Inverse folding.
């Protein structure tokens, strides 16, 4: 594993050394991030799930995301582990049944033949289709669980140990959005999703494309970007003409995004995503506990 400076390497080593105590003392023993066991297990039943290369790559992301400041990194790792224990994003991804109106606007595609780094795994949000479905934003918690489920399933398309495929691309398609106002409920819902991504998913976004944004709705971008931190904002690209997306994602569908693939987005969509072995173990355990 490469580091820019010996100081960064030393911070990483210190985090790795002290993480098991943090997990036990501050996170109620919860040791999973993005489907991976993050510290070695002394329990023979679960020891096999520890994949050091993946665990270290994830820990390194937290170090990078929080600029190798030891105390800040540890604080965020504790907060992520506590949030995951409580929110249960694995359940949102692999167990729960979400509102079909939401499910049909979220897609996942994978372009293994892509040469440019970190443009292989893409999550799509066809949010223009939700323009008139204001009721979905009333139940912000359900929207959030659906969206986090999509994110977690998208993460399965990454390989944390491969520097050319350890960040996701996200696309928001606002095609069909017309004469539209952002009311308080929607604003709150969007804000809470943005907050969760910023707090609990650091160093995972390669780029975010907003396509088919009508020029008269450019103000929405100015409103929403205020909720987003500077480093994330730098990764945003707004394309009024959605066909230009093909320049950034050459393997995406020709119609309506200008890529090279004659298949539609629905045909490219990977509907079936398997949880990681450790996630499966945890989910099965939860099912047994629920039954008991
Ligand atoms: C974020 C929905 C219109 C720009 C979001 C999010 C949702 C959402 C649910 C939360 C983040 C996520 O899911 O990834 C909608 C809907 C719209 C709409 C339903 C109208 C039909 C617009 C427009 C723009 C825009 C017209 C202008 C470019 C943004 C930005 C973010 C965002 C900049 C922050 C993304 C991030 O932090 O990752 N939107 N949106 N939205 N939206 Fe929209």
């Amino acid at each position: 594993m490469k580091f820019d400076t010996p100081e960064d390497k030393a911070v990483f080593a210190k985090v790795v050394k002290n993480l098991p105590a943090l997990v036990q003392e501050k996170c109620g023993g919860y040791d999973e991030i993005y489907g991976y066991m993050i510290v070695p297990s002394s329990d023979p039943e679960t020891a096999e799930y520890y994949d050091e290369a993946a665990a270290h790559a994830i820990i390194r992301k937290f170090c990078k995301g929080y600029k190798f400041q030891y105390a800040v990194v540890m604080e965020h790792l504790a907060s992520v582990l506590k949030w995951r224990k409580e929110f249960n994003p694995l359940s949102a991804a692999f167990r729960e049944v979400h509102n079909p109106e939401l499910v049909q606007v979220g897609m996942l595609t994978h372009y293994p033949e892509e040469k440019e780094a970190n443009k292989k795994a893409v999550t799509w949000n066809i949010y223009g289709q939700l323009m008139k479905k204001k009721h979905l934003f009333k139940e912000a918690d359900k929207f959030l669980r659906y969206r986090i489920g999509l994110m977690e399933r998208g993460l399965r398309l990454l390989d944390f140990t491969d520097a050319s495929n350890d960040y996701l691309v996200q696309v928001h398609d606002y095609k069909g959005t017309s004469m539209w106002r952002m009311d308080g409920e929607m604003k709150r819902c969007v804000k809470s999703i943005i907050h969760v991504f910023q707090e609990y998913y650091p160093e995972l976004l390669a780029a975010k494309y907003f396509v088919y944004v009508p020029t008269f709705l450019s103000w929405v971008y100015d409103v929403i970007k205020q909720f987003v931190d500077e480093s994330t904002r730098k990764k945003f690209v707004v394309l009024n003409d959605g066909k230009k997306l093909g320049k950034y994602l050459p393997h995406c569908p020709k119609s309506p995004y200008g890529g090279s693939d004659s298949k539609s987005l629905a045909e490219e969509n990977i509907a079936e995503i398997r949880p990681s072995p450790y996630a499966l173990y945890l989910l099965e355990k939860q099912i047994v506990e629920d039954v008991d």
About this structure: Strands lie at 32-33, 36-37, 106-110, 121-125, 168-173, 205-211, 236-239. Residues 125, 127-128, 130-131, 147, 172, 174, 177, 180, 190, 193-194, 197, 208, 210, 213, 217, 220-221, 224-225, 228, 232, 236, 238 surround protoporphyrin IX containing FE (CB under 6 Å). The chain has a mean pLDDT of 96.
